[in-house]
């Protein structure tokens, strides 16, 4: 066995973009490997701390509701890891009351001018957060590969 570096993982991520269907796992091994809901919440907390300090991407998050983003991200990562959660895509702008409009990932990110380099930076930050929480590298790689197909929707520049 060999340990994949983050760069190698990103390469694999790009290579797998077309190969991996954007569907949750049918078993919950990845979810368990992340430490379940509690583990995912800790990872998301660390992830956002790293993102908000990352000069490559932090400015993109300046005007957004980070607490809400954490909740949504945790929901989504849990679902994609095969856990008992459902990301609804229901988006509530912080200036709104109530439930708000339903937006998909493409719509959420379309005005953010996101490049491949920014997408890779964010993926790297997620991997650092998972390393901080001792997620096994095989589990981390599976989650990253699962998110890879989103690049098509999220990168617009
Ligand atoms: C695999 C990559 C990504 C995933 C899985 C992802 C996931 C998400 C999710 C689940 C939300 C919450 C949407 C909601 O409120 O319902 C969100 C919002 C957001 N994402 Fe991403 N994202 C990714 C890449 C990026 C990148 C590369 C950037 C910028 C560098 C970015 C910037 C943002 C911002 C600023 C918001 C808040 C938008 C708003 O509240 O209107 N995302 N993302």
UniProtKB/TrEMBL annotation:
Keywords: Heme, Iron, Metal-binding, Signal, Transport
InterPro entries: Globin-like_sf, Globin/Proto, Hemoglobin_trunc
SUPFAM superfamilies, per database record: Globin-like
Gene3D superfamilies from the UniProt entry: Globins
Signal peptide from the UniProt entry: 1-21
Listed Pfam families: Bac_globin
UniProt-recorded name of the protein: Group 1 truncated hemoglobin
Organism: Duganella lactea
């Amino acid at each position: 066995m060999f340990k994949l570096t983050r760069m190698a993982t990103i390469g694999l991520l790009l290579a797998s973009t077309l190969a991996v269907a954007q569907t949750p796992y049918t078993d919950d091994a990845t979810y368990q490997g992340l430490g379940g809901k509690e583990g995912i919440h800790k990872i998301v907390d660390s992830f956002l701390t790293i993102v908000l300090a990352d000069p490559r991407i932090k400015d993109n998050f300046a005007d957004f509701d980070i607490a809400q983003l954490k909740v949504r991200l945790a929901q989504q990562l849990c679902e994609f890891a095969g856990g008992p959660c459902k990301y609804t895509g229901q988006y509530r702008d912080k200036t709104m009351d109530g439930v708000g409009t339903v937006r998909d990932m493409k719509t959420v990110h379309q005005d953010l001018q996101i490049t491949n380099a920014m997408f890779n930076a964010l993926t790297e930050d997620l991997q650092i957060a998972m390393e901080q929480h001792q997620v096994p590298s095989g589990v981390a790689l599976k989650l990253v590969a699962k998110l890879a197909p989103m690049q098509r929707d999220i990168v617009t520049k």
